[in-house]
Each structure stands twice: as structure tokens, then as C-alpha cells.
Description:
This protein has one helix and 27 strands. The chain has one helix at 282-291; strands at 15-17, 24-26, 30-33, 40-46, 62-68, 74-78, 99-101, 104-106, 120-121, 133-134, 211-213, 220-222, 265-270, 274-276, 300-307, 331-333, 341-343, 348-352, 375-377, 380-382, 475-477, 484-486, 549-554, 561-563, 568-571, 580-584, 588-591.
Amino acid sequence: MSNGGIIGPVNDPIVSVASTTTAQSFTSSGTYTSGPQARFVDYLVVAGGGGGASGGGGAGGYRTSCLQICKATAYPITIGAGGSAGSNTSTSGGNGNPSIFSTITSTGGGGGGGTSIGSVKAGNAGGSGGGATNYDFAPTPCAAGGSGNTPPVSPPQGNPGGNTPNAGVSGGMNSGGGGGSGGSGFPGTCNTGNKPTSNPGPGGGVGGPGTANSISGSPVTYASGGTGYHNSTGNNAGTANTGNGGGGTAVQNLAGPGYAGGSGIVIVKELTKTVASGVWPLQCQYNYKKQGTWTPSAPFDVDYLVVAGGGGGGGEAATFYGGGGGGAGGYRSSFPGGTKLSLATCSSFPITVGGGGAGGGTSGPGVTGTSGSNSIFSSITSTGGGGGGGGAPGISPTASTGGSPGGSGGGSGGGSGGVQPAGTGNTPPVSPPQGNTGGLGSCGTGQAGGGGGGASATGSNASTPGVGGAGGAGSANSISNSPVTYAGGGGGGFYSATGTPGAGGSGGGGAGGASNTEGTAGSVNTGGGGGGASTNANARSGGSGGSGIVIVRAPGSVNLTAAPGTNTVTTLPAPAGGCKVATFTVSGTLTT
């Protein structure tokens, strides 16, 4: 069957119609959810404008084009705030904040230069650059406006700010205008050219022009630069949701601050075209190739690191026992050299980042630390670390509890009449193993707790007199392009005034408590186990386990987004080949 002359596989002539013909405008941060048949959208992403001081603020970055999207998918939207106004003669305006939609980030506008008498100051770089400033008789060469299109994208998101003249002019600041999306800011001048008609004397350059866009149905101009200033009246703050730069003012003689930049905006419009499945408009294809975002529809392989939350260290209800260290959260990774996961494009994957378990308390059965929570990505589940055993009279024949099983097992608590078992690791079993068994507590003099198991080593047994077991070592991983060690076990506590707490295992394991203190918490986003409590005169709690982490590493040609905003996607430099790395420090969603 013919498909209109396109070389390639025949497409089923099923059509795909966008679910709406109305542009959705976001004036504050939120979420855009694509329609059930959405294939591609037009977008406008404008960042917050830079604040003016004496030099005008640069416009927020302006980016508009066509973008491939996934149907029925939630995309977080960030609206950049405008930069703050320069507050006095030496403070430049603040840069605007970026606006973000999917893979598109527009950079905030650069702040306008602010300066003191007899000197000059350049404008700040940004989506468009801020205008420079020269205050009264400055003997120096002209100052440069801030660079635009920083960092560089294609097509450019903005233009440079205006310069100052080569020498100051008595009686005013000769300040450049901020750059706009449609052109550079005009320079400050020593004559009547290139300045607002309201300016009665020589001085400020006009801001660079903005760009009109009809994505919302009627033409609206966005991303104009703020005007630089010489005298004290006539400029304004950037209008909200335009990304305009703030105007400058004469802060000579402390006449007042400049003006803040306008906030940004994001507008998304699902295209109303009817298209055959598998076919994209040539304009979209051209834009994807130019931006490096044209991606294959075939599944792709990713590396992963999934670390669960660490177990809490054991607590002590009495005054003569040491708590066991919490086991590290289960550690599972394909990097380097393991079996990767295959993911589909235009799909969403829920990510669960396990929390660390609470440290054991100071009464009854509650002295045992709580096990950590599981971390999950696709078919990979890492089990939370086991809680460390604790001690209290009457809870067992030995007055202590054993460690709990988990990704790595918790160490058992020290007791007076025998040793309880440590928690087993790699529970449930996976290959390669996700962790190791905890160490045994000691009985008799000192009654110290065993160390929690770690990703690469078992927890150490406690020894007498009063030496807590060290937590098992974690494992180093360079999936994010630099080695970081994860999943160390917690150290055991002790009983005596002169004992020694067990050290936490490398990879975020918390140390056992010093004499008569609570155990140390495991480090956040490492899956380290919490340290066991140490007692001498008072009951103490164990340290809580550290939360887990999930990291996904994909080819550079793949589009990745991570929600919510506390999670990140970065592109690695050479020699990693431009791979993209999504890091989840809290539970969220990975979209491909």
C-alpha cells in the first residue's frame, strides 16, 4: 500500500487527532498533561526577566518551536520569577529565573549593572544580557553589556545588553539597555540618541525589542529588554508573565532602586493536524535534529542503581546493653558491566525511593530498630535494610533482641545471658546478592552490639570488653560519572563508661553512639544503616537509617524527564559520551 511517497515501512492509515485545539497558558508553575492522542505540540517558553539597577535588565530567554511529546503524560512546568531590582549604587539587578517545559529550558535574563560614582560595571549574562552602567566621569573604557543566549541554544534565546560610552558624562549614569529576544540592548549615549523620549538629558539606552507570538490566538510581545537610565524617572518594572527586563533608574545620590524583571510564561498547544501513525511534520523533524532530540522509537537499554532505605539502629531500655547497627538498604546495580534494563520510549515509570527505618526506642519490644523501606524501579526491587537488635529486661532470656533480616541484615544487640542471631542479608535472595548479614552482639563484660551488614561486607561481631562491631562496608559506583559509595552498615553500640562504639561502614553507615548517647543516623540518600545506642546511666535510642536512591543512566539520544522537581536529569561530559543520568532522591516518575 502506498504511503504518499515516504520511503520506509508502510504506515497504517489510522489518524491521530490532538485532544484540544486550545493553547494552555501557565502563568505559575504547575503540570501539563498531554491528551490521550497527543503526538506533538507547539510551545513557547519564556524565562523571568532580569532586574534593572541603573542598566536595564535583560529579557528572559525566549524559546518557541515544535516538540515531540508522549500521549497522556504529565509534564512538570516551571515558571521563572523575575530578577530583583538593584537596591543601591553598588548592587546590580538580580538575574531572572529559568522556565522549563519537558526538555526545553529558557534561561533567566541577566541583571542590569549597578555601580558607584566614578566607576563602571558590566551587565550580567543570561537569556538576554543586562545593560552596563557608567557613573559620572569614569575614566575607564566602556563597560560591556551582559552576553545573551547564555548558555547557548539554537536558535538563540536572546541577545546581549547595551554597552556604556567610553567616558562618563557629568550629571548622570550612561547606562545600556537590556537585551531583548528580538535584538540587542542599545548602548548608553552621551547625546540624545537611543533613549526614551521622557529622558530630558543624555544617557540611557533603550532595551532590545521583544518578539510577537500568536500561539495563544492573538499576537502578544514577549521578552523585551529593560531601558537603561540617566535621570531619575520614566522606567518601570517588567510586566508579569512577559519575561520583560526591569528598567534602570538613576541611583546616583541614592535616588532609589531600579525595577524588578517580569515573571516568565509557558504556553503549550497540542497541534490540530491529523497525521498518519509514525509520521511527523518535516518542520518538527528539522527542529528535533537541530536540537539533538530526534529519538528512535525502538526500545533502548539503561543502566540502573537502586538502593533501598537503611535499617534503624537498635535502642536500649536498660542501662547495661549496647544496640546493634542497622543493616544497609539493598544495593542492586547494572553498572558497570551488568545486565541492563530495556525501556520503551514515550512511557512513564514510577520510581520509589525507600525511606530509612526509625531507630529503636527505649522501652519493651520497641527497642529493635525499624527496617528500611524498599526502593523500586521497573522490575528491580531493592529490599530495605534490617533493623538492629536492642536490649531491655524481660524481652528475651538474654535481655536482648536479634537483628532483623533485609537487603543487609541488622546486627544483634548485646545481652547478659547469650547472643541472639544477627539479621540475614540478601533477603529475599537475588543474584548478584543485594547485601550481607549483620554481626553478632556480645555477652558478658561490655555487652556491645554487632555491626549492620553492608553492600560488600558482613557486619563485624562485637568484642569484649565493650567494643561495638563495625558496620559492613558499602559499594562504590560511578554511574553518575564520579565514584560514590552507598549502602554501608551501621556500627554497634556498647555498655560501659570506657567502651568503643562500632564505626559506620563506608557508604553512609552511622556510627554506634559514644558513651551514653544515641546512635548516629545513616546518611541521606545512601541507604546507610543507623548506629546502635550506647548506654551507661540512661536508656538511649538507636540512629535512624539513611534514605535510599535510584539512578538511571540512558543513551544521550534519549529524552528523559524526572518529576517532581527535586529529582534531576543531567548530561554527562566526555568521555561518558553524553549519556543522560536521572537521579531520584525522592519518589517520583521517570518519563522517556
